[in-house]
Structure formats: structure tokens, C-alpha cells
Write a structure and sequence with these properties.
Winged-helix domain-containing protein; WH-like_DNA-bd_sf; WH_DNA-bd_sf; mainly alpha; RNase_R_HTH_12
């Protein structure tokens, strides 16, 4: 999990938002995060692969229940790795 991953998850959860990568990037920057659009686009895909974000048919991402568990420190890296196998 990278610093960018945490910023994306925390931002979406804190503001209870569903956003596509472009507006997510813009809003992260407006709130003081220095994360480029290409990084956000890459990170949301990775977070979705791990089940921490879900994407709807319109390309909007939101934090999943599993993502909330991660943010609440109720899930650790080993839990993410076991699902990849």
C-alpha cells in the first residue's frame, strides 16, 4: 500500500464520494495532496484489484466495505495478499 493509495481511500471515505479518476485527482490537489492524474488512475485500478474500491459502469469509484476495514485498521497486508493467490 502506497502513500497515494492511502490518500485516495481516505479522501473518498472522508468525503463520502464516488468519483472518476480525473475529478478525484483535481479534488485531491485542491485539498493539498500532490498527486498527478496518471498516478490516481493507476492507484484506483490497483485498489479495485485488491477489493478496496469498486467501480460502477460509469467509471466512478467508491470505497468498499473491505476498504473501510482497511481504513479502520481492521485489515492488514497479509489479508490482501491471501486474496491474490
Amino acid at each position: 500500500m502506497t502513500m497515494s493509495d492511502s490518500a485516495v481511500l481516505e479522501f473518498l471515505a472522508e468525503h463520502d464520494l464516488e468519483l472518476s479518476p480525473k475529478p478525484l485527482s483535481r479534488n485531491l490537489n485542491r485539498h493539498g495532496y500532490d498527486i498527478g492524474y496518471s498516478t490516481v488512475r493507476l492507484r484506483v485500478r490497483t485498489l479495485e484489484e485488491h477489493g478496496l474500491l469498486s467501480k460502477d459502469d460509469d467509471g466512478y469509484y467508491e470505497v468498499t466495505e473491505k476498504g473501510q476495514l482497511w481504513l479502520n485498521d481492521e485489515l492488514d497486508v497479509e489479508d490482501l495478499e491471501h486474496e491474490e493467490e
